[in-house]
Amino acid sequence: MQYKFQYLFILGLLFLFAWTLSYWKFFYKGLVVKNHYENKFKFGLKGLNYLIGAIGILYISYSLMMPRKPLSYSENTKNVKDIFLVVDVSRSMLATDLSPNRLTVAKEKLEEFARLRPKDRIGIILFSEKVFTLLPLSTDSDLITKYISDINVGLLGSGTNIGDALGLAVARSVASETKSKVVILLTDGVSNVGNMTPLDAAKEAKENNIKVYTIGLGSDGEARIPIGRRGFFGGTQRIPGGSIDLKTLKQISSMTNAKSFKATNRESLKEILYEIEKLERTEIKINNQRLFDEQYFKYLLIGFFLFAFSEVFRKIYLREVS
Fold first, then answer.
1. pTM to 2 decimals?
2. Rounded Cα distance, 72 and 86, in Å
């Protein structure tokens, strides 16, 4: 049984107290009997009548609390997550060892990941030499996928600033009131610029209970990136394989109780993001009452008739003088 207004029962008890004083005061004032037996009989009736009236008041008092029984529950789940996608946009992300290039594959799979988390708040931070918040935390799925599709290289310099990018994600996550916070860091290189080292940023994440999943993107062999203009005047530049700082990425994830991955092709990146999605599928069960059986009316009805009967009996049969 549940109650909407429990405190109203006190008002009923106060009324019962006042009514009791009035009841017995006027009973003794108006009681006129001829002999001892008639006195005892009338006193017994008076006591019984008082009990009926008192029970009626208690029923009415109980009805004021608005008692109700939940008839059914619907068990729902609610995912509560803040997720920052921290994406490397250095020129090496244009390498063609993943067809058509690393960045295009990353964008495609990140869009798929975002669509798997429609109730989450997702933000996007880009980094190369500089760091930039492309999208603050948002629940707008269409907006998130649009911004992911618009990610490109060439605007943030030529370095790889993992530390400051991760530090910015941590700072923005700390400002959120959501308890469950995750960062997904995707890079194909080694941190070589910035004010904060990747491990210092990871330490900040650990202190604020923020998990950092890291993904190293790229094949083990050498790759090529386009240089110059497309067409006749364009060319490609060779970059060596194995240029990802996997050791640091593993340390970052280990420090924050997350996992580190390496994606060497489109399918492996898809599987990695799907695994992260499963790991972070934290569900909170909530019992939502959908239908109630309101009980107050029957108690009010019973109480009213008992109290009314008591008052009528007192005034007419017992012939009190008030």
1. 0.64
2. 44
